[in-house]
Design a protein that fits this description.
This protein is α+β, with helices and mostly antiparallel strands and about 260 residues long. The protein contains seven helices and ten strands. The chain has a single domain, classed as Heat Shock Protein 90 (2-Layer Sandwich). Strand 3 and strand 4 form a beta hairpin. Helix 1 crosses helix 2. The longest helix is centred in the first third of the chain and has 16 residues. It starts with 10 loop residues before the first helix and ends in a 5-residue tail after the last strand. The N terminus and C terminus are likely disordered.
Length: about 260
């Protein structure tokens, strides 16, 4: 059992707590303490502790078979990764999500709840927890981004990391401005991603794509910014007197064929 702790602890204590937290999460045990998230080194210590734990299993034959199945066979659709990030934003209580497409990367932002230590663990995992959270069941949902990228980057709250080979995290520099509500994903495009990007943008900017919002409760706006070919779109709901309504059966669509400058 971990004793209660305070923020801004000495470096050695922060390292020890990070290791203990990873052990608890690996055993699906609750975290019995407050984490030292006010310590500027916490992100680096915690991500390093996860990486150290994961490295124990790098040579596992089962793991080598599992990850290709998760990232490739289960997510064959070109836009499945986008649907997963939309669902993650919905689960995090976000009211809007923005997709920005560039020649060499896709950036996705939502204003949902910032990541917790449990969320960071889940996004680095594939099957450690039976709990469904905003990273998706078993942490598998996020793995669909590997259709586009080899090294996704995640920044949310006090955490910043990139994932290599699907489950091995490395810490990134955490900005000085830490938002209580946000998650930002940067997906540098791999070769397959660059080949797919035009088709993905076309699918996401179709007016009938907005019907997805009918299945969501929290998200009110999906925005697509296309800096590749200029096909932009916004999908949003209107809420008046607690009732979702408006143009065309509850949803409205605004598309812009002009290039973003």
């Amino acid at each position: 059992m971990i004793a209660p702790v305070l923020d801004c602890l000495p470096e050695s204590t922060s390292i020890e707590i990070a290791q203990q937290v990873v052990e608890c999460l690996a055993d699906d045990a609750p975290l019995p303490c407050d984490l030292p998230t006010g310590d500027p080194s916490w992100n680096d210590h915690y991500v390093r502790a996860i990486r150290k734990y994961k490295e124990q299993f790098r040579g596992s034959p089962d793991l080598k078979r599992l990850l290709p199945i998760v990232a490739e066979r289960l997510y064959g659709r070109d836009i499945h990764w986008a649907l997963e990030l939309i669902q993650n934003a919905e689960d995090a209580g976000a009211s809007q999500i923005v997709f920005v497409f560039e020649d060499d990367a896709v950036h996705v932002m939502n204003n949902g709840a910032a990541f917790t230590a449990e969320d960071v663990w889940a996004i680095c995992s594939a099957g450690h927890s039976a709990k469904k959270n905003k990273i998706g069941f078993y942490g598998i949902g996020f793995k669909s981004v590997y259709k586009l990228t080899d090294v996704p980057q995640i920044r949310s709250g006090v955490y910043a990391l990139q994932l290599e080979e699907k489950i091995y995290p490395s810490s990134l520099l955490v900005g000085t401005r830490r938002r209580m509500r946000d998650a930002r994903f940067s997906l540098p495009l791999n070769k397959e991603g660059r080949q797919l990007i035009s088709r993905v943008i076309a699918d996401l900017t179709r007016p009938d794509f907005m019907q997805l919002l009918l299945t969501l409760d929290s998200l009110k706006r999906i925005r697509i910014i296309d800096k590749v070919s200029g096909r932009n779109g916004q999908f949003y709901t209107a809420v008046i007197h607690r009732a979702r309504y408006a143009y065309g059966g509850g949803l409205s669509y605004r598309g812009d064929l002009g290039r973003v400058r």
